[in-house]
Structures are given as C-alpha cells and as structure tokens.
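Section 3.1: Structural characterization of target chains.
Under the original work plan, the team committed to producing a structural model for every single-chain target entering the pipeline before any wet-lab resources were allocated. The record below documents one such target. The sequence was received from the expression subgroup and is listed exactly as submitted; it comprises 253 residues.
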Amino acid sequence: MPRGMPPRYNRSPNRYLLRRGTPLWRVHHAPYGAWEFKAKPSDMLYGGGRFDATEADRYPYLYAGLSAVTALGETLLRDVASDESGYRVVPNKEAAGRTISELTLAQDLHMVSVIDAEDLGAIGQDDWLVSCSGHDYPYTRDWGHWLRRKATWAHGFIWDSKRDRGGLAIVVFGDRLARDFGYEHEQTLPREITEGAADLGDATGSAWANERLIRFHAIVSPPVALPVATRSSLILCLRALLGAASVCYPPVT
C-alpha cells in the first residue's frame, strides 16, 4: 500500500474504452431501478464501498460487473468466510430483497483503467487499491477522489474484480455522465434488458445465482425448506452441485 498520492504527479492515468452495447450486470435493492445511481454519499470513515462518493467529493455513482458472475461475487461474497470444509454459505437474508439486472450501454464511456500492474503503476499504486478489504475503504475512497481530479475526462473506473479474478468491475460517475450526456442519463444511457433480471431472494433466483457462484465453492441458501434444514445439509447440497449430482431443492413451478 503506497503511503499517499504522488505530490508531483504530472501524468495521466491509463484509459479503457467501454464501448456502446457493452452488457453490464448490476445487483441492487429491489425497490430501486436497475439504472438508478446512488446519490447519498458514504461516511468518510465508516461503511460504504471502494470508490463511493463522500462529503469530500459528492457525485452519484453506480457499481456493476461486466458479467453476472462478477456482479454476484462483488455483492454477495464480501466478507463471507469459508467454513472448516472450505465452503462459503451466503445466508438467504443477504440476497432477499436484491435483484440482479442486465443493462446495456447506449454510449461509449471513457474509464480510468486500474486493471493490472501497469495501470496501477501509472498512478503510483499497487494491487492494494483494488483488492484490499473493507477496513481500508476510507483510504481507497480518498484515492478515488484524487483520481477523479487527475482524470476529469473519466466517466468512471474499471478494475480486476477481487472476487472474480479476470472479471471486470466498474463504478460509473453520474456527474460526469450528466456533463457529457445530459441530466436524464439514468434513463437514456444504461438501458435495462428486463429478460436478464432475477430476484435473488426467491427459490428460482437463488438457484440461478448458485449455478454461477458454484465455481467459487459458494452457495446462497434457498428460501424453501431443504430435506434436512441444517448447515450440514447445505454443505452436502453444495458438494452435490459441485459434482453435478443433483439439485439441492425442488424447482418452483
């Protein structure tokens, strides 16, 4: 972890062109639209996400993944520890009330790339910026604000997902989109593909999520009763899925 921003930095961060038509996947709370940006800034010191706005730099923001797997991992697998057998079970309450939605971009976006060592080195950083745990997020938010000042052209950042290595995660800045595409950018820029939406808290949605999370030896516990509703049965269920032996719970008809 570099101690601070380079005081005499006079370069430009590396760029990544996110092209029109690129699919995006976003996990969000069900009452909110798939395209809605979060307007409330996070606390300067507590909670929040890696590159949230704060009172030091206010802007609407939206996180997404370039694949459903990345979006699920970045949202549901945060701070979920493996058990003694090396499996991770996400309580259904963590998925309840959340929806995963597919969007597609209607315009090209210019992103600051912090995907690899070359990109990170270009801003005097290392892998810590995109892989540290939540207790360091006050520092990564401060770095994010500094990057925004150095890259006024940027519509957001793109990085290698901590929870889906090789998958790309993004944050998009609403103030920059409003500047370049107009104040109705939420309705016109990311277009929702309604067929790609799933309620992660119900039986169908959790089963859909588990098909994608299973590669990480992780499972969202379903809301329906299991044959034996205990943690051990969930682990057996996960092992069955890993071996493609059976499904864990009856499908909803």
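The chain has nine helices and ten strands.
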